[in-house]
Amino acid sequence: MQTVSLAVNAASSFTGASVAGVDLLISADSRNAKVIEANAFGDLLPNVQNQKGRSTYEEEVECLIKKRSNAEFQ
Questions:
Q1: CB of 22 within 8 A of CB of 38?
Q2: Which of 29, 48, 57, 71 lies in the 20 to 30 Å Cα band around 65?
């Protein structure tokens, strides 16, 4: 899907970041998309949870903890 690769490419600008938030503007016919904003952290998403029942912020903290733990053992 073009939108996924567009978002992944934009997020890759944040080298070393565990997470990134990318906002896309998608055309009415869904044929074109543009990046309108990218953040090194996700936006405020109250009451939004992933499949594990964790919020955006809980998932970010978990990623950072895992990244730090992995770095300590290398």
A1: yes
A2: 48
